Amino acid sequence: MLRLPLTEMQASSGMFKSNAPLIWRLLILLQFLPGVLSWGKEGHYATCKIAEGLLTQEAITTVKMLLPDYANGDLASLCSWADEIRHNPRWRWTGPLHYIDTPDFKCNYDYCRDCHDFAGRKDRCAAGAIYNYSTQLSYYGLPASEQKYNLTEALLFLSHFIGDIHQPLHVGFTGDAGGNTITVRWYRRKTNLHHVWDNMIIESALKKFYNLNLAVLVETLRTNILEDWSADIPSWEVCESNQTVCPNLHASESIRLACKFAYRNATPGSTLGDEYFLTRLPIVEKRLAQGGVRLAAVLNRIFVPVQPSRLRMPVAQSWSKEGHILICRIAQELFQPEAAEAVKSLLPNYANGDLSSLCSWPDEVRRWPNYQSMSSLHFVNTPDQACTFDYSSKILAFGLSGTAKKMSALSVPSKSSSCSCCTTMKGQNILNPMHVGFTSDKGGNYIRVRWFKHKTSLHRVWDREILRKALDGKDMAAFQEYLHETFKENWKGENSSWTDCPDLLSCPKKYAAESIRLACEQGYNRVQEGMKLADDYFDSTMPIVAERIAQGGVRLAMTLNRVFGEHNQAIPSPF
Ligand SMILES: *[C@@H]1O[C@H](CO)[C@@H](O)[C@H](O)[C@H]1NC(C)=O
Ligand SMILES: *[C@@H]1O[C@H](CO)[C@@H](O)[C@H](O)[C@H]1NC(C)=O
Ligand SMILES: *[C@@H]1O[C@H](CO)[C@@H](O)[C@H](O)[C@H]1NC(C)=O
Ligand SMILES: *[C@@H]1O[C@H](CO)[C@@H](O)[C@H](O)[C@H]1NC(C)=O
Question: Is the pLDDT higher at 572 or at 149?
């Protein structure tokens, strides 16, 4: 299975004890590989080196741009950076991101149950960190002024944690801290089981089979990837539902391997020698290779060519709370039974089954640290004056189609089985698209205008002033009724043009193109800085806002019906 120099392997038994020059070479080598930490420095180096060889041109360019100068363009040289900084006070919180503790002897993994730190803070584990840092990196195309995170750090963390999550004992039992408290002998040296898997197996392999040369080990794994494993590579690279990252899959593999190979025959006090080494080495080598192949696949998916957005456009916010609630209420009336049931089961309990009560949730959380990376999902930036929308996978349309994709992968849990953490996590998934996808976001934050008597910005006029004036003390039910009537009179013929789009992934492009066209026609082209806007402007724009809200509701229902129901089913006539 594995390309191992077999004759050398047989010839080498005994070398471990007696070959003095080799020991010296090992010591010299170790000087260049200081600080043996998690998935030892050698393991991380190998994983990143393999990944480097599999990157697309776009990914190579971006990685080099993100690396600090002293890395000389070599990602592998900084793949243990996350280990080096983890004891620094500023980074101490990242300690739990290197591993996942799972229940003793269960031999399985569950994100909701297991992904937290010792204090129970959610998402603080290797899988959560992979989600976090890959999301941060996916905004690399946005202008620096809109970057909230240091993408160099995101790249180094992501590269490291994808390595860690492939080390079987980084997804180990809670009771023995992933083998850290299981004292064993590795040949004659006293150590612990975790360390055996982080370092000793790799070090012994370097010594016995690879001439103490890490480059030879990397080259051997590369050859295996091109030959013996080549048929498996596509299945290693792909994530379910084409997601960018799939740490849950890797973590499940790891805990299974930990039970089957790492813990087995390695009870406290045992001595591990040739038998253990030679049967486990192929596992270690395959995990190093898988980590490298998958890191490359992830970076290649994240760093896709984009049109640089040449010009700055005001950052839009979104519909006011009222707009979101109306959109969700309209949608709720149009849900098919499957979608209605699915939505109810995904909502947190405190929503009482009412989606519209949480429709502004993404706005409320977007400043929370955990969700800041989603902030740019709330708007679309387009080149000034172009009045067209060119899909660049970085932004709103990406948020919507990505979320829709994620939702199609969700199996709907029965109510009783959901833990509170799952409810929140899935709540997040389901609540996102309503926000990001069905708002006609507009720029115009920087264009100051007068709305009747008070000063505001063009953006706020579209965000809330028009709708607030339309509501004008009336309750939302009355406005909904108005939408209902207008639909029957004016929009009925248009329902198919509202919902038409070949597939869920291309819908957001269409919505964004409509929005920017409207923004140009009704916003930028009609309004100059300092202008006073009053009845005339309201009378001509209110119907547009009303139509956008109705469209938002119809489209949200259409999307969720398609995601949760049978595909290609007819959309019921709205209202
Ligand atoms: C995501 O990464 C950022 C930057 O390191 C950090 O501030 C934030 O707490 C992380 N979120 C989670 C859930 O780990
Ligand atoms: C990003 O992080 C790296 C590593 O911590 C640091 O060297 C660099 O100065 C940071 N860049 C910015 C722009 O803060
Ligand atoms: C994943 O992407 C491939 C190629 O782009 C596509 O053919 C396939 O249908 C996608 N699968 C899912 C589940 O989205
Ligand atoms: C649009 O509405 C008409 C009349 O109510 C209905 O027959 C048709 O099926 C609807 N189209 C879609 C795509 O729902």
Answer: 149
In CATH, what number does 6-302 get? 1.10.575.10
Do 448 and 457 contact (CB within 8 A), yes or no?
Answer: yes
Strand 271-272 and strand 532-533: the pairing is unpaired
Of 127-136, 237-246, 370-379, the poorest mean pLDDT is in 370-379
Q: Which atom of ligand 4 is nearest to the CA of 496?
A: 13
Distance (Å) from CA 82 to ligand 2 centroid? 13
Q: What is the domain partition of the chain in residue ranges? A: 6-302, 321-564
Confidence class of residue 6 from pLDDT cuts 50, 70 and 90? very low
CB of 397 closer than 8 Å to CB of 391? yes
pLDDT at 398 over 50: no
Of 181, 199, 205, 185, which is closest to residue 272 (Cα–Cα)?
185
Judge whether residue 78 has pLDDT over 90.
yes
Q: Which of 221-235, 349-363, 490-504 has the highest mean pLDDT?
A: 221-235
255 C-alpha vs ligand 1 centroid, how far in Å? 24
d(CA 444, CA 459): 4
Q: Computed from CA positions of residues 240, 246, 251, 257, in that sequence, does the dihedral angle turn out positive or negative?
A: positive
Superfamily grouping for domain 321-564: P1 Nuclease (1.10.575.10)
For residue 408, the ligand 3 atom closest to its alpha carbon is: 13
In order of 480, 493, 569, the CA distances from 474 in angstroms are: 11, 28, 36
Q: How is 447-460 classified by DSSP, letter by letter?
A: -EEEETTEEEEHHH
Q: Is 573 in the pocket of ligand 4 (CB under 6 A)?
A: yes
